[in-house]
Amino acid sequence: MEVLDNLKYTKDHEWIKVTNNGEALIGVTDHAQSELGDIVFVEVETVGETLAQEEVFGTIEAVKTVSDMFMPVSGEILEYNEEISSTPEIINKDPYGKGWIIRIKMSNPDELNSLLTSVEYTKLIEG
Questions:
Q1: pLDDT recorded at residue 72
Q2: How confident is the model at residue 114 (pLDDT cuts 50, 70, 90)?
Q3: pLDDT of 111 over the 90 cut
Q4: By residue range, what is the domain housing residue 23?
Q5: Phi/psi of residue 90, each to 5°?
Q6: Is residue 99 within 8 Å of residue 36, measured between CB atoms?
Q7: 48 part of a folded domain
């Protein structure tokens, strides 16, 4: 399982990467996509909404199951990665790159401090 040092993680297996001007990209971790299996559909109907930390922003559907995705930090959802609408399997192939799911404007960047580091997330998934 790949865990990148430059990201922060949630206990629910989302990652967040701060980009610029208080914006960030959010996706699901390599561990999550591996556990889910082949991803067949992603639904995000919250673009334009401002959600609190840990609120559900969408669902991810695999052959085996459907899972909610949770906001790592509070913020306004600016964009949904349209590329994964037609090719959701990108998340299986490149969960930290082309497989990002949403772009947000963070409401409270201090919430990043409550998230897991790569070391802490690795300990979580290794049990």
A1: 98
A2: very high
A3: yes
A4: 15-108
A5: -55, -35
A6: no
A7: yes
Q: How confident is the model at residue 73 (pLDDT cuts 50, 70, 90)?
A: very high
Three-class DSSP category at 77:
strand
**CATH number of the domain residue 69 falls in:** 2.40.50.100
State in Å, rounded, how far the first CA of the chain is from the last one.
13
DSSP structural state of residue 123: H
Distance CA 10, CA 70 (A): 9
**Given pLDDT bands bounded at 50, 70 and 90, which one contains residue 19?**
very high
State the sign of the Cα–Cα–Cα–Cα dihedral 101, 106, 108, 113: positive
Strands 39-43 and 56-62 turn out to be antiparallel
Give dist(CA 38, CA 88) in Å, integer.
9
Rounded CA-CA distance 112/92 in Å is 25
